[in-house]
Amino acid sequence: MKLLKSSPTPSELVSNGILRAVEDLDLTGNAVARIIGISAATFSRLRAGSWRFQEGSKPYELALALLRIHHALKSVMSGNIERMRKWLRARHDAFGAAPVERLAQIQGLFGVLHHLETTEKA
Fold first, then answer.
1. Which of 61, 66, 71, 106 pairs with 10 at a CA distance of 20 to 30 A?
2. What would the mean pLDDT of 37-47 be, rounded to a whole number?
């Protein structure tokens, strides 16, 4: 008898998605920890698979916003990872800085998200 694998939980999906986004966007563990409000040590545990986001927590909600940024940026840049990385690090008048510099503040995180989602729909 073959056992069916259970579907991943939302916590697992967000945790795995963040790890993919970090790789695609070439973000450091320290930068991501600041963006989503966890310690660098906790991010290391996430990367090692010994920690997962708790659904409904503040870090979970911030991680969802970062995932939305990753998804929108991937859409706007047609999946071109190098262009995504360059866009994130280039200065933009809309932000007065490089978007990556704005992500550690909630207002900046959601400002970048809004900009990308608006661009994506245009």
1. 106
2. 97
